[in-house]
Amino acid sequence: MHFLNGLIEYYIFLHENSIIFVENYLVIRMEKTITGFSKFSKEEKIDWVVSTFFDDADSARKTLGQYLNSNQIIQDVHDDFIENTISNFYLPYGVAPNFVINGKEYTIPMVIEESSVVAAASLVAKFWSTRGGFKATVLSTTKIGQVHFMYEGGVHELKAYFEEAKDQLIEVTDAITKNMRKRGGGILDIELRDKTAELANYYQLHITFETKNSMGANFINSCLEAIAATFRNDSIQIVMSILSNYVPECLVRAEVSCPIDRLHKENAKQFAQKFQQAVQIANIEPHRAVTHNKGIMNGIDAVVIATGNDFRAIESGAHAYAAKSGKYKSLSQCEVKDGIFKFWIEIPLALGTVGGLTALHPLAKLSLEMLQNPSASELMEIIAVAGLAQNFAALRALTTTGIQQGHMKMHLSNIIKQLDATEEEKNYLLNYFANKQVSHSAVVAAYQKMKE
Ligand code: MEV
C-alpha cells in the first residue's frame, strides 16, 4: 500500500504478521507493539511483556511475581491506582524521630531509596531538638486555576462581557463548591487577564481557590471546566482549563536559629561562616543551586510520598519558585548576625491531608496518623522542616568532612552485605577500610585476601 501524509511518502507492507512502515529508506518493523493490551487480564499482560522483551522470560516473570503482593486486598488497592499494572515497585519506608516543630514532637515518615537521607534527617532533628527546635509558619494557602482562551474581538467588549458574567461563573460551580464552602474554602476571586502582548488573542480567567485540607486538584479542575463551559460563546474559544502547579501563594517558612557558639564543637565561627558562604554560592550560581535544592527535595519528596501527596506537583512548583526572580536560586537562606546563626527556607507546598491517595493508600493513612493527623497547613510546616533539615545535613557535611565520608560508610556496608560476610568478617572489613578508599573492587580484594 502507498499513501501520502503531508509531504512524506509512506509505503506499508505486511510481513510475517508485522507491519513495516517505509518512509524514504527508514524501515520500522512494528513487532513489539500491540492493540487491546488494556483489555488483557494481568496474567496475559505479564505473558506478553515477558515473552516480547526478555531473553529469559521465566526469570522476568519470577521477578515481577516476587513484587506482586500476596495479600489480594492490597494488590487490588494498587491495581486501582493506575492502569496496566503487572507488579509493584516498592520503595523503603523509614522514619526520622526526634523532630521538634513549634514545640511539638514528631517522628517523620520518609519514603526514599537513597541511603543516608533518613539517617541525616534523624541526626539533624536530634541536633536542633536541643537548640530550640524548628519554627515553622504557613504564610499563605491559596491556589490558582486558569481557563485559557482565545478572543479576537475588542478588549472593552470582552471586559464588559466578563463583568456581566462574573456572578454567574461562580454560581455554576455552586454544587461543586458546596461542601468546600462549608469547610471555609471555595473560589476566592476570578480575574480576567489580558495576555495579548505575549501571544496574539490570548486571555485567561485567572481564578484563586482555597481548598483547606485537600490538595484540591480535582476540585479546582471541575470548577474550571464548569466555568469555561458557561463563559464560552461564539467569539470565545476555550483552549484549556487546568489548575496551576505554580503556587507562590501557598507558601510556608521553616527556620532554625541558635547562638553561633552552640553550632559546632570546634571553631563554630568558622563553621557558621563557611555554611553561610555555601548558601550564598547557591544563591548566585545556578549549577550549585540546582544541587543544593535537590538536597532539599530529598527531604521534601520523601515525606510527600509517605503521606500520599503528589511529588511531581511539589517538584515543579518548588523549582519554579526557586526561579521566580528570573534566575534559578537557592530555596534556603542563611544569616550570621550579632552572634546568632539563622537558617531558613521558604517554599510553596500544595498538599492535602484528606482525599486523593491520602485516603486510599493504607501506608499514606498510617503516615498521617504517625504525624498526629495534621491539617494541610501543619503538613506544609512538617514537610518544609524535613527539607530544611536535609539541606542543613548536606551543607554541614559538604563544608566540613565532605559528603563522601557518610556515603562511603553506607557503600561499604552494602558491598559487605553482597559478599555474605559473617559478623566477624564484616567487623574486620569495617576496621580495615576505616582509613582507606572504598571501592567495590578494593573491598572484594580485601575480602578474598582475608579468606586466603
Ligand atoms: C545528594 O542526594 C544531595 C546533595 O548533593 C545535596 C547538596 O549537594 O547540597 C548532597
Task: Explain this structure.
This protein is an alpha+beta fold. It folds into 3 domains: 93-140 and 249-400, 3-hydroxy-3-methylglutaryl-coenzyme A Reductase, Chain A, domain 2 (Alpha-Beta Complex), CATH 3.90.770; 143-244, Hydroxymethylglutaryl-CoA reductase, class I/II, NAD/NADP-binding domain (Alpha-Beta Plaits, 2-Layer Sandwich), CATH 3.30.70; 406-451, no CATH class. 46% of the residues lie in helices and 23% in strands. The protein contains 16 helices and 14 strands. It has helices at residues 42-53, 57-66, 72-81, 117-129, 155-171, 174-182, 217-231, 268-284, 286-306, 311-322, 357-360, 362-370, 376-398, 404-418, 423-432, 440-451, and strands spanning 2-5, 8-15, 18-23, 26-30, 93-101, 104-111, 135-138, 142-151, 186-194, 202-210, 236-243, 251-259, 332-337, 340-348. The strands form 4 sheets. It has a 4-stranded antiparallel β-sheet, with no helix packed on it. Strands 7-12-14-13 form a 4-stranded antiparallel β-sheet. Strands 9-10-8-11 form a 4-stranded antiparallel β-sheet. Helix 1 (42-53) crosses helix 2 and helix 4 packs across helix 13. The chain is globular, with a radius of gyration of 28 Å. The protein binds (R)-mevalonate. (R)-mevalonate is lined by residues 114, 291-292, 294-295, 298, 394, 398, 403.
